[in-house]
Amino acid sequence: MDQRCETTNRAIYVDLDGTLIKGDLLWESLFQALRRKPFVVFLIFGWLRHGIAFTKARLAEAAEIDVKTLPYRSDVVERLKTEKAAGRRLVLATGSNETLADAVAEHLAIFDEVLASDETTNLTAHRKLDRIRDRIGDEGFDYYGNSHHDVCLFEEASEATVVAPDRVAHNWQRKTGAERIDATESEVKAALQAMRPHQWLKNALIFVPAVLAHEIFVGSVFVSSLLAFIAFSLTASAIYVVNDLLDLEADRRHRTKCNRPFASGRLSVPNGLLLAAGSIVIAFTISAFLPLAFTGILVLYLFITTAYSVAIKRMLLLDVFVLAGLYTVRVLAGGAAADIEYSFWLLAFSVFFFLSLALVKRFTELQQVGEVASREVTGRGYRHVDLEPISQAGMTSGFAAVLVLALYIQSPVIEEAYAIPQLIWLLCPLVLYIIMRIWILARRGEMHEDPIVFILKDWRSQFMIGCGAVLFLIAAAW
């Protein structure tokens, strides 16, 4: 009976980053601040001269994080609610800035007190322990934590609970046998999801120049195209990671994107940055074995996609033009890697065709969000009332692509390359079918948010592409 009363009276101190939530508010504040105010990147080094505590305070101001959307560990929160109901005193003790810590405590409404960093003191490790000792003296306390910074608190606590620990905290927990609450999913699996390998299908456009030049089965051409495909895929994955980090808050408000690895907290920001950096290094190592022109295009692609992630994707119309251009850049990269010249007609067709698909992507995103769609909700420059003009522009652009294709088929180039150029005319209705079907499904709300991936997975579209390939083969072989 005495032991039960002693336990009930003992306060529970709970860490925030990595323990109460699945992320780290310092890293989240950094990327949220960069998303809202990109010029912050030039201020950070000046802030760091005043110390990490001062930097945390400035980032918290610039980021304006909505704590309601943070990825809380539901098992930890439910356990704390049970302890609160049993009469335990709960204290949020964190190295995060006091502004964010107070907001979290107010949102959860289970904490009796908040201990957090201010502009002058970074409340971690021994500084946190000293602050707790100042509050309770020689009384015992329980502690929930997750990292190497918490080991000194684990050792002083009457009861320690180790939550999803890092390597140092993991070793301490194994040695002492302290209670442990594990993460529900491996970060390796989350990292693979963050790389979005299914999106690599879009990079199949790199093979288009070699296919149209009838050289895809030439050994050196195929190997060069394959290496280019791998390099572009890894670069794209790195950009997807950075894009997700910049879109954390918007993704958490989205019906499906909230399940992405970073938005859900299944993958930490530091590990994501390592993943992106490693992908870039491997991609450019591969590019060293390809023509210099390809490396130049890869650098251009990296620059444009970074600019797109940081700012352009929130700009009305400019975002879809850049998206269409990025698809076309893949075609250019394929030609450069295999040292194949690409025609004006191919580039013109690509611009109109992929502009139509980029508009499908925006149309679908707006449709999923519904009438509440706005810059604040979606992180884009569109509103729900824009659905109709987006649809009209997208279908018109698709028809323009077919018109360019028809003019190309009638050009002398086709007559020289194929004995029966009339067969190539059948490509026009095949492309029309693909474009019109995509837009009809989009209007019905049945379209995958990325139309390129949809085309490469949809059996009807695959059938039309296969028919087109057969037409090319017959016309060339005849």
Provide an overview of this structure.
α9 links the parallel β4 and β5. The relative contact order is 0.07. This protein has 478 residues and is of the alpha/beta class. The N terminus is likely disordered. The radius of gyration is 28 Å and the shape is elongated. It folds into three domains: 183 residues, HAD superfamily/HAD-like (Rossmann fold); 148 residues, UbiA prenyltransferase (Tetracycline Repressor, domain 2, Orthogonal Bundle); 136 residues. It contains 24 helices and six strands.
- SSE ordering: HEHHHHHEHEHEHEHEHHHHHHHHHHHHHH
Sheet-strand content, in percent, reads 5-15%
CATH topology value of the largest domain = Rossmann fold
Strand line-up of the largest beta sheet: 3-2-1-4-5-6
Second rung of CATH, namely the architecture of the largest domain: 3-Layer(aba) Sandwich
Rg, Cα atoms, Å: 28 Å
What is the CA–CA distance across the termini?
94 Å
CATH class descriptor of the largest domain? Alpha Beta
Q: Largest beta sheet, briefly?
A: 6 strands, parallel
Which percent range fits the helix content? 55-70%
Overall pLDDT confidence: 87
User: What is the global morphology?
Assistant: elongated
CATH level 4 superfamily of the largest domain: HAD superfamily/HAD-like
* Tally of DSSP β-strands: 6
Q: Low-confidence parts, pLDDT < 50 over ≥5 residues? A: 1-5
Keywords: Cell membrane, Membrane, Transmembrane, Transmembrane helix
Organism: Roseibium porphyridii
Protein name: UbiA family prenyltransferase
Pfam family, one: HAD
